[in-house]
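Folding problem:
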Amino acid sequence: MDILLSKTGQTYARHQSQKMEKKTMTRRQIRETAFRILFALNFCPADQMQDQLNLYYTDHAEVEIDDLIEEEDRHAVIQVDQASWPEITAKCLGAAAHLPEIDRVIEESSEGWKMSRLTKVDLTLLRLAVYEMKFEHLASGIAINEAVELAKRYGTEKSPAFVNGVLAKIV
């Protein structure tokens, strides 16, 4: 299988038969993968998001769960199917393109907290949820619930309540 990434952010999977692969990732897995990629925005400029996507896709195209030794690693891996990459790409590039507006919304809603004081995980979760609510028009209840679930998995003990509180002020 070849992975083709265009400069416009379109991703294509070309199989020997030239047919697109079936999408096997759930929306939750797509969101979690987007979260993992968007985390890079804490360390690189938003205009480098396409480069981050290319790196992620290249690194994860060849991951085989059977090759992972540690049981914990096996559970952490999300099998990324190429058919879901356009959706992941759109979510990541969209959030990166609207980052100043998203950050303004978060800053206005997180009273008493400067953006620089937020944990990188919490900030990334808030950015993703705000993007989904404001630009993808995802129902706020779904976006908040999904962000809280990811906060339980990746954040600190206080992350779920904090993420929930900030997002509740936004809606």
Q: What stands out?
A: The radius of gyration is 16 Å. Residues 144 and 168 are 8 Å apart (CA to CA). The helical segments are 27-38, 49-61, 71-76, 85-97, 99-109, 120-134, 140-154, 159-170. Residues 120-134 form the longest helix (15 residues).
